[in-house]
Amino acid sequence: MAASLRLNVRPFTSQHFQSKSLPKLASKVTTIRCSATPSVRRYTITLLPARHRPRSHLRRQERTPDHRLCRRYTRIEFGFKEMPMGGAALDLTGVPLPEETLLAAKQSDAILLGAIEGNCTCTYKWDTNEKHLKPETGLLQLREALKVFANLRPASVLPQLVDASTLKKEVAEGVDLMVVFILENQGVSAQTRMVRRLVSTLRSMLLMRLIELLALHLRTARKRRGKLCSVDKANVLEASMLWRKRVMAIASEYPDVELTHMYVDNAAMQLVRNPKQFDTIVTNNIFGDILSDEASMITGSIGMLPSASLGKEGPGLFEPIHGSAPDIAGQDKANPLATILSAAMLLKYGLGEEKAAQRIETAVLDTLNRGFRTRDIYSEGNKLVGCKEIGQEVVKSIDPKVPIAI
Ligand SMILES: NC(=O)c1ccc[n+]([C@@H]2O[C@H](COP(=O)([O-])OP(=O)(O)OC[C@H]3O[C@@H](n4cnc5c(N)ncnc54)[C@H](O)[C@@H]3O)[C@@H](O)[C@H]2O)c1
Ligand SMILES: CC(C)[C@H](C(=O)O)[C@@H](O)C(=O)O
């Protein structure tokens, strides 16, 4: 439940995130009040959208909170705080993760991130920046500062989207897997520390993280079909040899979970050959990042995959697995469902609000059942719509009057 994952506020003193002060307008706080009863559950959510516009620049309807999302849950109240990060923060403050943004994130119950690249139609604007001034570094710094170490990426082929998969129907149908990996948050501060630290300290830190991740993941695997495939490159890489040893040792404490091992090159092939053989995959950051992008296409599109970054305590970070899609920026073509499903993961894993999470997932399914599709998941016989329209349709489906139709 939420209590075990609640916020862990510590004063923030790191020098690495110091920046110009944010302009007053940069932070927008919106409260959606569903009820004033004493039993109300209150959550503060930090929103980190790709595009950060000062409140005065928003159109009137954008300033008005949409109450439909919580009308059905009369005991939940959300306070949303929108802050800049990544490209938007670079434009505003000169750094990708301003101190104010990090503080707001740490003080919230959960964080929902859109994309890190800002609202940039001028593709790859920050490509030549030094590492500490790249939008991606803001994300790595944020993950590191929040101490999130496990990234969960579920990839399921929805019955409504079987035709959108790039694989044959009989191969894609029924796929339901989860890729989990250790986040190696090598932000600027981590990198600096890493060269200073003794190798042995670093190694034991990584091992501790691995143990924590595996414990979490083995519990996840238990809740699923109980099959865990550890993906590594233990035939070549020393780090992978160590990984495999540890995985075997830890997994021996979970005899009800069936553990298998696979080399990453084989795993990449098996994912398109027979993805149904996988239940849960556990691996490292780089392999997990690549395999989850591959898995997304089995489900129809990278625009469908949400993710959760979790730590032992403190707020979790929830985001779609895709990036800022610069090739389609500003064209109303992006699929927002991965972000919407990330909000569902936020409710489920971040706040323990499973019913509210289910409602969002059901609304997504209902929207697909009604035939709405963005270009990336379009198949014949459906209604081709843009990003905004499909988002509005999901909101309509959240309306309590809409019957649940899975
Ligand atoms: N977690 C993150 O914030 C994250 C993840 C990946 C990439 N990035 C960043 O995003 C930027 C662009 O990277 P990239 O082009 O390699 O990856 P990308 O995920 O932005 O785009 C890859 C391809 O997928 C498509 N795509 C992505 N999201 C989509 C959506 N919602 N709907 C429909 N199509 C979608 C794009 O149009 C593009 O063809 C880079 O700066 C990268 O570092 C950020
Ligand atoms: C943008 C980048 C820092 C990030 C990563 O490598 O972790 C991304 O690829 C992801 O999938 O979240």
From TrEMBL:
<dbReference type="GO" id="GO:0000287">
    <property type="term" value="F:magnesium ion binding"/>
</dbReference>
<keyword id="KW-0464">Manganese</keyword>
<protein>
    <recommendedName>
        <fullName>3-isopropylmalate dehydrogenase</fullName>
        <ecNumber>1.1.1.85</ecNumber>
    </recommendedName>
</protein>
<keyword id="KW-0100">Branched-chain amino acid biosynthesis</keyword>
<dbReference type="Pfam" id="PF00180">
    <property type="entry name" value="Iso_dh"/>
</dbReference>
<comment type="function">
    <text>Catalyzes the oxidation of 3-carboxy-2-hydroxy-4-methylpentanoate (3-isopropylmalate) to 3-carboxy-4-methyl-2-oxopentanoate. The product decarboxylates to 4-methyl-2 oxopentanoate.</text>
</comment>
<comment type="pathway">
    <text>Amino-acid biosynthesis; L-leucine biosynthesis; L-leucine from 3-methyl-2-oxobutanoate: step 3/4.</text>
</comment>
<keyword id="KW-0460">Magnesium</keyword>
<keyword id="KW-0560">Oxidoreductase</keyword>
<dbReference type="GO" id="GO:0051287">
    <property type="term" value="F:NAD binding"/>
</dbReference>
<dbReference type="GO" id="GO:0009098">
    <property type="term" value="P:L-leucine biosynthetic process"/>
</dbReference>
<feature type="domain" description="Isopropylmalate dehydrogenase-like">
    <location>
        <begin position="28"/>
        <end position="394"/>
    </location>
</feature>
<comment type="similarity">
    <text>Belongs to the isocitrate and isopropylmalate dehydrogenases family.</text>
</comment>
<dbReference type="InterPro" id="IPR004429">
    <property type="entry name" value="Isopropylmalate_DH"/>
</dbReference>
<keyword id="KW-0479">Metal-binding</keyword>
<dbReference type="GO" id="GO:0003862">
    <property type="term" value="F:3-isopropylmalate dehydrogenase activity"/>
</dbReference>
<dbReference type="InterPro" id="IPR024084">
    <property type="entry name" value="IsoPropMal-DH-like_dom"/>
</dbReference>
<keyword id="KW-0432">Leucine biosynthesis</keyword>
<keyword id="KW-0028">Amino-acid biosynthesis</keyword>
<keyword id="KW-0520">NAD</keyword>
<comment type="subunit">
    <text>Homodimer.</text>
</comment>
<dbReference type="InterPro" id="IPR019818">
    <property type="entry name" value="IsoCit/isopropylmalate_DH_CS"/>
</dbReference>
